Each structure stands twice: as C-alpha cells, then as structure tokens.
C-alpha cells in the first residue's frame, strides 16, 4: 500500500486522533499517554491553522498512520521558533516514514519563515535520536526527569535545528 505525505485536513481529525492514541498508549515516546478527544483536537488544529503552524500527515488511503507538526512560537519575539512533535503508528515504523514526515515538515516550516525548530526527545529513544541527528538536529541540553511514566522518571534531550 502506498503512503502519501500531505498537509493535514480537518477531515483527518478522527483518524489523526486514533493514530496519536495508538502511539500515546505505548507509553514510550510521547508526553501524552492518550490522544485528546476529537473536539478539543480539532479546536487546537483550527487555531494552529490560524497562526500558521505546520501540520503534516502520512496517509494510507484515508487513514492517518503518522504525523509531524510544528507549533510556531506564540508572540512576535518567538514567532521564528517552532516546537516539533511527531509520531508513527507501530505497524509503519522502520520504513523511512518518520524521515519523510520530518523532512516535509521541516521544508514547510522553512517556507513559513520558521528559522529554529526545537524538540524534546526521551534519552532512551534511540531511533528518534538517530533520525533527528541525521537531519542536523543538535543537542542543546539534557532535561533530567523530564517525564514521569508509571512512577519512573525519564530524562530527555532538548534539541534544535537552525534552518
């Protein structure tokens, strides 16, 4: 099956939510453990469209199987910065989809004038670290005990990519 990479449409909200939920429920990669409900997620996406955030999805037919988003800094002094979040459904990992999503998202951010992309990634997420480093992200800081999952603290790396 062919995977297409494209901009998020409002019609994708429920499918995006299901994909986010699948990744969040793994309790390994995201700060969220469960996706937001469809209505709050749609409101967040609509607001993102208004402020020129970047929302990219990977679709198989009409089903979202991955996403990458960059939320632009809120305020004139930080509008050149964006915070990246992304995920790929477990069944679609290991196929280069994360890199395709990331590269498309970075390109769209550059076109919108975002000059600095930032993210936080768990220190034990080796696949994500390898991906981010492969496209030029550099580590700026270690955030100790950045996440608390099931009573266990996990440190994270704060990384950035200057465009």
CATH class category label of the domain at 3-115: Alpha Beta
Oligomeric status: single chain
CATH topology of the domain at 3-115: Aminopeptidase
Uncertain segments are none
State the distance separating the first and last CA atoms. 33 Å
Give the SSE string: EHHEEEHEHEE
Strand order, biggest sheet? 1-2-3-4-5-7-6
C-alpha Rg (nearest Å): 15 Å
Proportion of strand residues? 35-45%
CATH superfamily of the domain at 3-115: Gcn5-related N-acetyltransferase (GNAT)
List how many beta strands DSSP finds: 7
The percent of residues in helical segments reads: 25-40%
Secondary-structure-derived class: alpha+beta
CATH architecture of the domain at 3-115: 3-Layer(aba) Sandwich
The overall average pLDDT, rounded, is 95
Taken from the alpha-carbon principal axes, the silhouette is globular
């Amino acid at each position: 099956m062919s995977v297409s990479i494209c901009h998020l449409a409002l019609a994708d909200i429920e499918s995006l939510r299901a994909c986010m939920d699948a990744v969040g429920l793994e309790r390994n990669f995201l700060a969220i453990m469960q996706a937001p409900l469809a209505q709050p997620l749609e409101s967040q996406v609509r607001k993102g469209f208004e402020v020129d955030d970047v929302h990219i999805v990977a679709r198989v037919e009409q089903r979202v199987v991955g996403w990458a988003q960059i939320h632009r800094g809120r305020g004139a002094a930080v509008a050149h910065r964006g915070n990246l979040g992304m995920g790929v459904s477990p069944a679609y990992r290991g196929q280069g989809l994360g890199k395709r999503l990331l590269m498309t998202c970075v390109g769209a951010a550059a076109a919108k004038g975002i000059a600095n992309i930032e993210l936080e990634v768990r220190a034990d997420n080796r696949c994500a670290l390898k991906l981010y480093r492969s496209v030029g992200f550099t580590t700026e800081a270690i955030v100790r005990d950045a996440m608390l999952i099931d009573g266990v603290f996990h440190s994270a790396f704060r990384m950035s990519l200057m465009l």
